[in-house]
Amino acid sequence: MTGTMKRSPITPVFFGLIALALVTVSIPAHQAAEEKTSGQGKLRFRVAYTSSHLPAEAQKVLKAAHGGFAVDRRSGKGETYFALPGAGIIQISADLKSIKMLPTAEEMKGTNMHNAMLWSASNETYLTFPGNAANRVFTTKLDGTLVHTLKPPTAETDLGNETANTYFKGNGPFIPTDVEYLNGLFYIPTGYSKLDYVLTARVTPGKNFDATWNKLAFGGRGTGVGQFGTGHGVTVNPGKKRIDISDRPNSEIDRFTPEGKYLETVSLPKGSFPCDTYYDGQYMVVGALHGPDRTKGAPIYILEKDKVVSTIMAKEELGLANFQHIHNAVIRKVGKKLYVIAQAWNPGDFAILEQVN
Questions:
Q1: pLDDT per position as a tens digit, 66-103
Q2: 200 Cβ partners below 8 Å, 6+ apart?
Q3: What are phi and psi of 213, to 5 degrees?
């Protein structure tokens, strides 16, 4: 038996539903989750990229992440660099949209680079990494080529400080946790050792690159003015001849002259464990290993004029489950927006956060 099928007219409502579905599907993932933001005022952020943005080689070893970032501040540049044990040096493009691996010397690739620093001198630009487990400081070109390895002080090395000299005469380990460059010197905190001094090395950049230990050391483990609980990170604010040391358990940033004279302290919320600082324009960003409330994961602080103006809670408010501990964070301006690049520790993880207008 045959019959006649009735055709229902396609109404404007039907077309409207189709259009709505297409719009919904085309919304980028970070916009679909726009309700998840963290921070205060104009310094609120959402997740732009997670670890899936990294090359596969980096993703395989990401849980071991225990380092930090270096940004190329030169005009027309803007790339960001870091390293992962087992993968090597990694470069993030200036627009943050692409990430690639760089060829890395085996003695660097197989160990941890606890932070990263980019600096220029004698018409050359370098990356320098503190190898905390290797007890070395490595310097490379921007393409990853290793140009120098600074080895530990020996019993005969004169560091210009009796306590530091005695420590190495007693075969104390050299454990660099960060490195900065200013006026021809490397400044190297050693907060993972009982020494906990900032050591310095005289640098000769150029074709015959060299670095030799210098007669200047300051800080030390203790509770006195200018001493550290753990001197973890070192930063030179661009345009300022000043050395900032992140003193983790004391929840503070201690500032010194290039000669090691104590200047002042910037206090953070008690219970914070600042790992390092980074400056961009009027802002200072601080990644913290812990926050005052350890049940909520660690904060990323943004400071203006040395006062906290925004607190980003990556785990609690952005849903980044592995960000119980923040080991490093930098802030970048790309276009008209600010971005925070952050690295978690134990387990390691990676994310790029985007400012919400």
A1: 999 999 999 999 999 999 999 999 999 999 999 999 99
A2: 185, 186, 187, 188, 213, 214, 216, 217
A3: -65, 145
Strand partners, 140: 127, 146
Place of tokens 């973890």: 232
Q: What is the CATH number of the domain that holds 112?
A: 2.120.10.30
pTM for this model (two decimals): 0.90
Range of the domain at 259: 36-355
148 in a domain, yes or no? yes
31 in a structural domain: no
- Number of structural domains the chain divides into: 1
Backbone angles phi, psi at 106, to 5 degrees: -60, -35
Residue 20 lies in a domain: no
Q: Which burial class, exposed, middle or buried, applies to 124 when counting CB atoms under 10 A from its CB (0-12, 13-18, 19+)?
A: middle
Phi-psi label, residue 229: left if phi above 0, alpha if psi -120 to 50, beta otherwise: alpha
Q: Are residues 214 and 171 in contact, defined by beta-carbon separation less than 8 angstroms?
A: no
Cα separation, 130 vs 112, whole angstroms: 8
Residues 6+ away with beta carbon under 8 Å from 36: 46, 47, 317, 318, 319
Which residue has tokens 């015959």? 208
DSSP secondary structure code for residue 221 in this structure: B
Dump pLDDT digits (tens) for 299-357: 999 999 999 999 999 999 999 999 999 999 999 999 999 999 999 999 999 999 999 98
